Amino acid sequence: MTISSLQERLGDPAIGNNPILRLIAGIIFMHEQDYNEALKRTNEGGTMDLYTTLGAQSMK
Q1: What is the pLDDT of residues 17-45, one digit of tens each?
Q2: N or C: which end of the chain has fewer CB within 10 A?
Q3: In sequence order, what are the residues at sequence separation of 6 or more whose Cβ sits closer than 8 angstroms to the Cβ of residue 46?
Q4: What's its membrane topology (predicted)?
Q5: What are phi and psi of 17, to 5 degrees?
């Protein structure tokens, strides 16, 4: 239920580009071992936190 709600929010153009939401989504998808989705949500960068999460994904 959480993943589907998260994907719905990420698909909303009004809030889907929020860097904090994208960071949390990347962490959740990494935890779920859905690395493709995690990369999709964090590779746009924009903040040091997103770049750090992207680097952590690359090392997995």
Answers
A1: 898 898 889 889 988 998 888 888 877 76
A2: N
A3: 19
A4: Peripheral membrane protein
A5: -95, 5
DSSP 8-state symbol, 34 = -
Residue 1 has pLDDT above 60, yes or no: no
Q: Three-state DSSP class for 16? A: coil
State the Cα–Cα distance between residues 47 and 53, nearest whole angstrom.
10
**Beta-carbon neighbour count of residue 7 at 10 Å?**
14
The boundaries of the domain holding residue 10 are: 2-59
Q: Identify which of 32, 34, 10 has the alpha carbon closest to the alpha carbon of residue 22.
A: 10
pTM of the model as a whole: 0.74
